[in-house]
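Hi L., both proteins are below.
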Amino acid sequence: MHKRALSVLACSAVMALSVTACGSGGSGGSGSAASAGTSGAASAAGKTITVWMMDGDLSTKATDAINAAFEQATGAKVKVQIQEWDSINTKISTALAQDNPPDVLEIGNTDVPLFAANGGLSDITADRADLSAGQTWLSGLADPATVDGKLYAVPLFAGNRAVIYNKTVWSKAGVTAPPTTLAEFTADLDKVKAADHAADFSPFYFPGQYWYGALQFVWDAGGQLATQSGGKWTGALESPAAQQGLQAWKAFENAYSSPASRNVDTTAPDQRALFAGGKAATILDTSLNTVLKDKPSLKGELGTFPFPSATAGRTQPVFLGGSDLAIATKSPNQALALAYLKAAASQTVQTGAIVGIDAWTPVSTQLIDSTKSSLPPTSAAFFEAAKTSVGTPATPGWATIESDKSINTFFADIATGRKTTAQAAKDFDAHLDQALNAAQ
């Protein structure tokens, strides 16, 4: 995802302890990881690879665990260079164009197509089975890293959103258990709404520009942001399924969130502060931690659950933020770099470090199932929600959509009624058509 969005999701890295970036690139040529393979990686004593990791994502202990697994498997050493977020995409582009790039780079999951598009990342498609080791990677991480059917990066970790609610407020309204379907959820929120008629109170505070959450309704109805055919992307929000999801989202937002929320994002005002201050009974967010920072006395009063689907037995698909690891095409150490990716995605490292140390969501559904029982229930809900995710369009143009905030305006147009869902979708689909194909 766009990098600074991780500053929000980074809070989920401590959630277990607190209760917690997109045409097809070059094939990698003769120096690609696929052609290099992993043979010889185990006899690399005396060699060193350079790895770029981003500041504030993995802890030193978690990074050390990846390095140790790699060094044990190969005999080679690792030089980790921590990178700042400011202007990182420009820095990565510059590094990949040079003859001495880092061997491995941490890249935001939705940003991977930016660098695959110009041939800067090695095609590792032939090694996918070995890298995944039978695991089913989370779609929200793997799909944006798969450009025109070719894999250019391996999932590293994820963060996502779940429903956070005040159990005391819900209980006073007669609701004592979390819902399992959307129908149950709205019925519960109706009770919460009936118990507090204050004009500035939201049974569920849901800002109109909060596209990460609003998209869940589109995906839950079977809609998509865009589709690809013959190498061309086409906005898909005018489809019947997407329209159904958009209408459901507007009805939900207008019914349960205050009128003042319809043209704002989550930060102004801060939805966590509103929740902590009693102006909302429920929010969709990445962490309990910041809520408790605002009001520590809420500890023990908060509950979490995945956002229920309109289809019984399912939860709404979520947008995953997080990072992938990729190999620079010009790296002279293709086999070793591939071995590093394998170590990072391994069950041992994911369980012991990604989850066990940093409490990030691991990269596969199997790993979620095997680790969530070790977490507090309030954290396990985030892991369970992450099992169903949808990736953003794997094209460099997606970066435009995130950076120009047109998607924020799109949903706010619907929430406020400035446009009908049909007109908003028609206008935004036209923008998607242009932006998603601009760098093809």
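That was the first. Here is the second:
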Amino acid sequence: MKKLSVIVPAFNSAGFLRETVASLRAQTMDGLEIVLVDDGSTDGTGALIDALAAEDPVILALHQPNGGVSSARNKGLAHATGKYTVFLDSDDLYAPGALQTVWSAMEAAQADLGIFEMCRFGFGGEEKNPMADTLSRLPEIGCWDLRLLWNFLLGNKVFRTEALRQSGVLFPPTRYSEDGAFIMQFIYAAAPRITGIRGAQYRYRRRDPAEGRSVSQSVSLQLAEDFCTSLRLIREAAEAALVRPGCPCEDAAGYVQEILYKTHYTLRNEFYRLLWGADDETLAFLRAQCGALEAEMTPATREKALAAHPDLGPETYAARREAAGHPRISILLPRGATPAFYRSLYDQSMPLFELLQQKETAPYTAAAFENIRTLSGSLKREAAAPIRMTYRGRRPLDPRLLRVVLLLKGHPLLRRIPNCLLKYAAPLFLRLKDRGWILREDGR
């Protein structure tokens, strides 16, 4: 038996896979098994996997017709021979020495599940995950700890392989939060001993949207439906476990309310915020789902859910034209604005804005997006939002910028900042945040 199996599903990953495998081969522990699963790639990934396996006997190459990441992970798990198993995406990394630390900690704690640190890198700079770091510092974590619902990351988890197999849990055939459904169903089914692991780091690559959006940077009706399916599986498994004799959860109703809140929060934060990349059918689905969740919430949970996104307000609009009619920021589009600047506006995580442009120099047609207005008079006078901003229009904006503008404007100590200074204060806030001096605005 190997000490630890690393399962790496790969679909059209030829550009990143060699770096990922190099980070695994550089690990200091012996007894490592690397299981590479080609999920029907068409870019040469399959041949690369075979070549890598030929170079190193610790690498096992598997191939299957394209069936999705869940299917590839399940196939890899069926072939894993390690005492412990981790899952690594084909463009992510483990920090040097991470897996030896993971192995030693799991052996010392005699744990079934371990949680370690996580750092995002790539687009947007480096950023630690506060929730993962908090959990990694705990020597023992209860199965009903609410913080587990807010850490669906898979790459910073290690499982005792036999406990996984005894639980019978597999990855569901969904494309969004399938990892969360897998982790939580395992916890509810196996009641595992869970430990935090300090000093080991999973490095999650955040890709530039200009290179093509990953699943977590995309929005579609299918992805939204898949997310709701994954959270429904979590809720059903939790409710079944909560009624078992001897369940140690002290507040079963409160736990289910947290699942409702998590579902509502994510629908708005990860999907609705990308409304300019969604169609009206998807937005109508989001509003219907949020409404149904709110109907099941207690008054306290509903109040918390509606207050969680102060920059968006309580309403979830069902159509882009409807959202365009309620801007919170007006941006006066300058002459000669570059296409990159324009695209960066529609990558913003605060979508309730309008663009105003002069008719004589309008570079973009009104049909492009519903929130563009082309005027012949004064742009400033016609602006519908209380905050009006102008930019040179040369460099792309940070996708968090408009969200931070409203965050600063809503802060009781900062709301007196003149609008003309917000475009300088917001980038400063982001620089401080990226250096680790300020946590994410939602505290997670």
